[in-house]
Design a protein that fits this description.
single chain, 0% strand, mainly alpha
Length: 83
């Protein structure tokens, strides 16, 4: 719900469909690649799997923090332009 709204609000108006399609493709691909990669890594080393989960979790958290900062900056710029 809200993730699609964030993507739509950040996309240029004439490219919202492409952004939505790319998000859907990425979401679907992650549903396929994640379990296969996780099971493969687990068969190689359970410890490596958990380290990969830790690293990817940290990267995802940093990415989300960066995205929230960009959204806040954009909202402040928009509010300043309107005022």
């Amino acid at each position: 719900g809200s993730f699609q709204a964030i993507v739509a609000s950040m996309a240029p108006e004439h490219m919202r469909g492409r952004y939505a399609g790319a998000m859907g493709l990425a979401w679907g691909a992650s549903g396929l690649v994640g379990p296969v990669a996780g099971a493969t890594l687990y068969s190689w080393s359970a410890t490596a799997l958990w380290w990969a989960c830790l690293v990817l979790g940290i990267v995802a958290g940093c990415g989300e923090s960066w995205l929230i900062g960009r959204i806040d900056a954009r909202n402040r710029a928009t509010a300043a332009a309107v005022a």
